Every structure is written in structure tokens, then in C-alpha cells.
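HUMAN: Ready with one sample?

ASSISTANT:
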Amino acid sequence: MKRFLIKLSLIIVPFILLLFVLNFAYLNSYYWLEQRDEAKFRNVPENIQLANLGSSHGFYTFIYNDFPEYVTFNFGMKAQHHVFNYYVLKQYLNNFSQNSVVLIPISYFDVTRIMKEYHRRYYTFLDKENLPGWKKTEYILYNYFPLFTVGKAYKRLLIMNKKEIAPDFLSRTREDFVSHSEFLFNWWTAKDSEEKGEEGFQYNIEAVSKIIDLCYEHKIIPVLVTTPQADVLNDLYAQIDFFDTFYRFTDTLKEKYPGLVYLDYSQKPEYSSDYSLFLDATHLNKKGAKKFTAQIVQDLKDAGLLQ
């Protein structure tokens, strides 16, 4: 029996050590340190004057590099919706200066849908009280042994030290945008478990209202914004009278909060018909984002919201 245990330990101990070595390598990989959206939260500045929340429409759309005169931050993360926009803002309230501006993107897909939230990634930077369903085991795993939480981890290990090179999206044709618009439209309007109709409408009104209330309570100016969308995507939505519901959503919030500013760029022709500004049918590329951010800053100045 003793001999068997020794042989077993000679197998198990090296295996465990290998797992620890691989996990250490993963923790120090390019993917873990830089490719994840949440890596930026290690450097949230103090005295923020202008920031944005949002899902990918915030993450990709706002680039503040051309405005060093302001303290700015992009809190957007891919697939981050209203509920976690609230918790992220709540986490960093003390990083904002008084009368700062927070842009709250209102996107086509998060008006009547109740979206699944990928909460595990928030273990790396949100406090326990700001993370619904917080579990100690998940906290330990995601912060210290993240390799064990990744599906098909071997693929991450193979690419973990390689930068992903973005393709030349400026070479896309109109047909590419039509195809991607049809894909998005079919996905976002599918009668699946996330589409909740009026129930989803009220759920999202309440979620955005919590963000707005939090802003007002802490002397932060909330501004609703809808980012530019390609005209081919807008044409598909127009066919199902979607915009009646969409603008009922923003009108409901403006009625609830008199004085609330809503900036709608979703169908501005200078963006929607210029495909050289788009990454795909619903996201601006770097060129488009820099142009759009400049317009946002100017429009906020013109409205007297940004000094």
C-alpha cells in the first residue's frame, strides 16, 4: 500500500505543479493582462470630468486621447448592460469631480431585452457589495487561478503571448455591411429567452433610472446617448416599426427626469452612410470613434454641460 501511495504521489504531485506553472503563465500572459476589458480598471484616474458607461457601444465608440485638457475614462465593456453599468459607476463614484458628465449609451438591443451578464470578470475589480451573487470560491478562482475557469484553456495557452492583429475593416464593402446588419437584426429581434417585450422595457427603464438617480445623488450629470449605426441596419429596424418602441424608451426617461439630455446620433447621415467610419454595422472604428468623440465633446460644450 505504501509503495502504491508513493507511486501515486509521483504522478499527482508533478501534475499539480504543472497546473500551477500553467496558471502562473496564464496570469502573466498578454491575454490576461491586456486583452480583457477589465484590465483598464487598474488605472482609473481621480477627478474624472467626462466618462462613459456602456456595452461595446461605449467600449469602442469613445476615444478621449485628443482631449488631454479633461480627465476622462471609458468604463464601457463588451456585453456590459445597464445593471452592471450601475455597479461599475457605484464602485468609482469617488473618482468623479462635481458636475462631471457621464454618458449612458442607449442601444437598440437593450431596450426590451433582459441580457445575460458575464459577472465573473467583475471579481477582479468590483467590491463584494457591488457584485450580485458574489461567491468566495469564484472570487478565489478568478483572481488567483483563472486558468481553471476558462473553457478550452489549452487554446488560451497557445495564443496567450500573441497580440491579435485587427483586420483592415476599412476595406469592407457595402455588401459586407448588409450581411452583418442582417445578422445583427435577426439576432437582436429573435424571440428568444432574452427578448421580453414590455417586461423587458420596464426592466431596462428601472435599470437606467437607477444609474440616473445615482448620478444626481452625487452631483454627476447623466447624458443619454445613442451611437451612430450604419444606415443598412437602421433600414431593417424601420421595417418593423421598432423606432416607436425605442423612442418611447428615451421619451419615458426624459419625462421622468425633466432636463435630462439625450443625444441621438443613430441616424445622422454624416456617420450612418459613411462606412469608412465603421468597424462593422453597429460599431465605429478608431477613425469614426475619434471623429464622434470630438463631436460629443463639442456638443456637450455647446449645451453648457462641459466647461
The chain has two domains: 1-35+120-162, 46-116+168-302. The first helix runs from residue 2 to 27.
